[in-house]
Amino acid sequence: MIDSLIRKELENIKPYIPGKPIDEVKRELGLDEVIKLASNENPFGPGVKAVEAIKAGASKVSIYPDGNVHQLRRKLADTLAVKEDNLLFGNGSDEILVMLGQAFLTGEDEIIMAETTFSEYEFSANIMGAEVRKVPLKSYRHDLEAMAEAVSDKTKIVFICNPNNPTGTIVTKKEIDEFLAKIPDDVLVVLDEAYQEFVTSDEYPDSLEYLKQRDNIIILRTFSKAYGLSGLRIGYAIADSKLIGYLDRVRQPFNANKIAQEAALAALDDTEHLEKTLKNNQEQKEYLIKEFSKLELEHVPTQANFILVEVGRDADQLFEQLLSQGVIIRSMSSYDYQTKIRVTIGLEEENQKFIKEFKKILSNQ
Ligand SMILES: *Cc1c(COP(=O)(O)O)cnc(C)c1O
């Protein structure tokens, strides 16, 4: 039987639950207009420069991508003031998480992550059969003291999601400095900065500084969120060149596709689109927060493009109710938050529609 063939490490892997796709909701519910505030995507879509690059790239897809990602690598190294060999590209930063597992983890090892954070860290450990130790958040933030204490001889990687998905909170430079001082050299620290562009706090660390002092830090960033290229799948790691070299050993030769490389290159030049995105996020964050306070709903102060809200009722049910009105949000029940939702900060009209439908549901009960 096929069951006996599977590696036993894979038996308990749960599938990733993505945000519900717009077209699926339209089809299932027969709705014409559906808005998605569920996956922290850029509400403006990709920028015009990226779209031009994508169109221009279409006629060249018979050619393999540049496996070494030369142009984007050069540009990004320049932008970040790092060396080209400090960079590694992935089919989304998700793929780099898997590569981290393949390069560094075995069934003997252990990773440490927050209890309520991005689930793909667990996946990268699970597929290699490594143990996962989860440390509860403290006031919705990573408890770096407890995470440092949890490090054992078996610990290979500690994952820090900063800002944290799904709470939107950050850990400060001071906290990370103190944390790193306690971490042995032979433990890797992953700083996942998928939402770094949205951060406005001046306590947020310039994590590139850490790379100058340490070779056990890996920073992950992505073009999926602020740059609006989720559908193309391109993200990157910044780390010591030797560490990057090890990750490169498990990399598929053409993992970053041709169009993604070209669109990312163009997106880096489109400061206008990025600025527009960040401005909207700030303004609409204020709008949503104001509405939540009027409704007397508590939210977690966010440094990202989404907000965790305590809705005081069953989140799965609220998800279904909003869905039936064409608004897709995320219930946080799978994170053990039965009465919380995560809502992505959208365009003004999307947020207004969400608030309008939300209020209708609240007043009907
Ligand atoms: C969205 C997200 C990612 C994945 O980004 P991709 O580059 O699209 O794979 C990584 N980490 C966190 C915390 C995210 O929310």
Model description:
It is a single chain. With about 375 residues, this protein is of the alpha/beta class. It contains 13 helices and 12 strands. It has helices spanning about 20-30, 50-60, 70-80, 95-105, 120-125, 145-150, 175-180, 210-215, 240-250, 260-270, 270-295, 315-325, 350-365, and strands at about 35, 85-90, 110-115, 130-135, 155-160, 190, 215-220, 235-240, 305-310, 325-330, 330, 340-345. Strands 2-8-7-6-5-3-4 form a 7-stranded mixed sheet, sandwiched between helices. Helix 2 packs antiparallel against helix 10, helix 3 (about 70-80) runs parallel beside helix 10 and helix 4 (about 95-105) runs parallel beside helix 5. The radius of gyration is 21 Å and the shape is globular. The mean pLDDT is about 95. Pyridoxal-5'-phosphate binds next to helix 4.
Summarize this entry quickly.
The chain starts with 21 loop residues before the first helix and ends with a helix. Helix content is 39%, strand content 15%. The chain is built from 13 helices and 12 strands.
Oligomer: single chain
Q: For the report, how would you describe the main beta sheet? A: 7 strands, mixed
The backbone outline, from C-alpha atoms, is globular
Strand content is 5-15%
Distance between the termini: 51 Å
Which bin fits the share of residues in helices?
Answer: 25-40%
What gyration radius follows from the Cα positions, in whole Å? 21 Å
What string gives the helices and strands in order? HEHHEHEHEHEHEHEEHHHEHEEEH
What compounds are bound to the protein? Answer: pyridoxal-5'-phosphate
How do the strands of the widest beta sheet line up side by side? Answer: 2-8-7-6-5-3-4
**Which class best fits the helix and strand makeup?**
alpha/beta
Q: Strand tally, please?
A: 12
Ranges where pLDDT stays below 50 over 5 or more residues in a row are none
Total DSSP helices: 13
Mean pLDDT: 96
